[in-house]
Amino acid sequence: MRIEQFVMAYEVEQDRLRAMLPEGFISLRPVLRINAEIRDGQDAYLELNTPVSRGDVRGWLNIANWSSKRNGISFARDGKTVTFTAPFLSISYKAVGITGGCPAEKENQGCFFVAEEGYLLQPPDVIISQKEFCDCTFAWNFHEGDARGKSLGKTLPAFATEPVIDYEKQPFSAPEAAAIACRQVLGTYTVKFQREEI
Hints:
Blueprint: E1 2-11, H1 14-20, E2 26-27, E3 31-39, E4 43-54, E5 57-67, H2 68-71, E6 74-78, E7 81-86, E8 89-100, E9 111-115, E10 118-122, E11 131-140, E12 148-150, H3 174-178, E13 184-194
């Protein structure tokens, strides 16, 4: 399967993430990440993740995912800008012509997805092609006042924070995550690769 992937991460309040994570997962950084894909040039896919550990495994936890086949996700191109649209999200990536190394992540052992019995750990994609940096704007639209943001033209770090506020337990859901304000967009890029189908 040919994949054109667009990735954007943004910083949020980590205590809010802690309040919504399922039992057994620990938040590693105050980050939410939106991955968007165009599959074989025609199908759109979106997912929302956050970095976690579970036991000795460190990776990402999938909060939700959507596809053009199941959820009516669409995408459109306008020059170097690709925009993904859903009833609950609009996100645009504009490639800026600056490339970097392949987007391998240290200590990323995969992504946890909800399965019938617990969680399934999906190994990360093997990507050797270079990434191209992007400018990005996004807005969640589950509710009025949901997170929105715009990249600043650079890649920024996000560090774990000590717990400050002990919020009541919240639902583990995309609408709950989307309601957490974006403090800043941390980085965004696009990359093309071939994914071996399982």
